[in-house]
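Handover notes (outgoing to incoming on-call)

Open items:
1. Protein NRT1/ PTR FAMILY 1.2-like: sequence verified, structure written out, both below. Nothing else pending on this one.
2. Nothing else urgent.
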Amino acid sequence: MEVSAMEEALSNPKARRKGGLRTIPFIICKSVERPCLEHMPNSGMCLLCLTAILPVYKRTPECAARLADCVVVPWQLPLLFTSFALMSLGSGGIRPCTLAFGADQLDKRDNSARNVRTLQTFFNWYYTVLGLSIVFAATVIVYIQQARGWVVGFSVPVVLMVTALTLFLLGSPFYLKAAADRSAIIGLVQVLVASFKNRHEPMPPETADASSFYTKAGSKPRTPTNKLRYLNRACVLRNPGKELSADGAACDPWRLCTVQQVEDTKAVIRVLPIWSTGILPGVIVGQQMFPTLQAKTMQRKVGGLEIPAATFGVFSILTLTVWVAVYDRALVRPLSRLTGHARGLILRQRMGAGLVLFAVAMAVAARTESVRRAAAIAEGLRDSDPRSGPPMHMSAMRLVPQHCLTGLAEALNLIGQIEFYYSEFPKTMSSIGVSLMALGLGFGAVLGSAIVGIIGAATRSGGHEGWLPSNLNRGRYDDYYLVLAVLGAANVVYFVVCAWAYGEEGQNRVAAADDAATVDDGKEEQHKASSEMERTFQSSGMQEPEIQTELEAQGGDGEDGAIGVRGWQGGIRALPRIFETEDAHSSVTNNEARMQMARKRNVTSSRKTREKLAEELTVTPLSLTK
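Protein NRT1/ PTR FAMILY 1.2-like structure tokens:
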């Protein structure tokens, strides 16, 4: 199998001393500053700060006093739009790469319960910290902009950006880095083109061995899976003398691809139906401007403090943050005992629950808006301008439940999506997998704008005012929310079908783990021993929580635990034969007692002593049978 650039980096003894938990604060700090820069559409980068500093961008006195219309001069727009474009490019680089880069520092390239648990904890706490930074951006930064003006309000995010960038660069010596190998996108396109070009070529039988398929020189030979078998045409070796060069590379990569390229393409195609279910959450998340307009018409004072209308969105972020922390620290272990999965709930269960909550949130929003509109009409505010008229007596806190439901849905579905794509995609495509969630939200934002336009145009026909006028009290925003709730319910049904058709999770990462190069050192040997022990526990009927607890008892991934694991292997392999004899039980009991005593001693013993002890504890079938 092919060895990715990251796997080659891991095989370097110097590189293996890098990475780990110590790199995570430097990586997360770079992500924390992003919400402070772009949470509001008008907060951002250095160029945006210039639009508040340069005199040519200042409003005229008449415009500031609302005595005349504020007219934008065309030559003022290029700098503003350039700043927005740079913000988008920067976010496109930070969002997908930061999360994948952080996971690469922790991922041990196996599917053990400990590794799965470590990655889940990283994803959860990444979004916990990110949520807190969004709360800071939506409260403190917004307050500074309102109280101190745009110059100070834009300067603070710029300072935060420079600080975060400096901290990120300071952690560079500790990062586990991999040189760029090849473009994953080009590899996907090559597989599709090669499959089409070879569509008339005969396929080898399903029982064909690895020699019938092309793998990169120096990689372990493998056969492609039978799923989406049509794509296997891209990696079939028909005439090695003509198709391969002297160094073993394909002469025409657009006609002959490696097995790993084919499997990467299959992983992307298989996940696309489930990915499409994440578009509608983008529609729902993107319509948060409507609750802001609702809050402006309602009573927003709590005690002597008036809450800004835009700040109510913080409740969804707080809910997300609290849920992630509670789930990771308090709920995973009880749920894992019930479900038998190290994550508690499998990823598709979490994603499906999030989609259900998105639909419920829209139903609650429809009910809240119906009550708000009826109360406004009863107070005689139907024709009052919500932007300048008096607020109604209903408290804006009535909007909190729908925000909390949306935040909980994001915590379950959006974070679940990221974990799902990262765990399902091969290691070489981790950045693409992480970025798929953001891509779905982007499509959802575009689709949301289209839905608003279609509903507005359809309901204004015949001279009617329509559902979505600028005056909320004259519109029917509750019906708009109901449309989203119905679409959300249909999306749940569609997701159930896609999840059922997808099959078992984790198959692609198993293949990618098999693709790793052999690393001849104690750490790699330790991981292999631990994985073998875990597989043995699974074959004996133990559940994931019990396996994880047992591995932790043996020392887990620690150096001392590795020797203990190797010492256990001989006895574990013999267990099926042990129970074939009547006298075996006493031998097993004695052996377990000796191993428990050995585990206490091997923590402080030398390497040679521990290896000798492991050899002593190896139980052969002959010693346990008559």
